[in-house]
Amino acid sequence: xKLLVDTCVWSLFLRRRSSVLxxxxxxxxxxxxxxxTADARVAIIGAIRQExxxxxxxxxxxxxxxxxxxxxxxxxxxxKDYVEAARCFNLCRDRGFECGPVDILIGAIAARRQFSxxxxxxxxxxxxxxxxxxxx
Length: 136
Hints:
Elements: E1 3-5, H1 7-15, H2 24-38, E2 42-43, H3 46-53, H4 59-69, H5 79-94, H6 101-113, E3 116-118, H7 122-131
Parallel strand pairs: 1-2, 1-3
Helix pairs in contact: 1-2, 1-3, 5-6, 6-7
């Protein structure tokens, strides 16, 4: 099963060395990403790529990060993905949870393509639970 990796996990992976990860949860997430990378199971969407790269002011660091992400092609999105994201947003809101536009798009993509999501974002996790999307 492919693993759609959320921005928060990419950030841990890219910006912190293993020796500086703060807690066992961060170590688990980065370890899971490394395993999925080795197994060629990592998925990414353009919005996550944009979030990861946004805010990197140093041009050389931006380029290094861009090169690290380059081997992971964006999942191609269609109109159906965005319509599904809107449906998922409404479903989650009806159940008392709201996600931002990128998070709900992550949930919709994972649901449509039967991907798992790697995240520690509690708001996204609540929406994934409503949508029945596996996460770790």
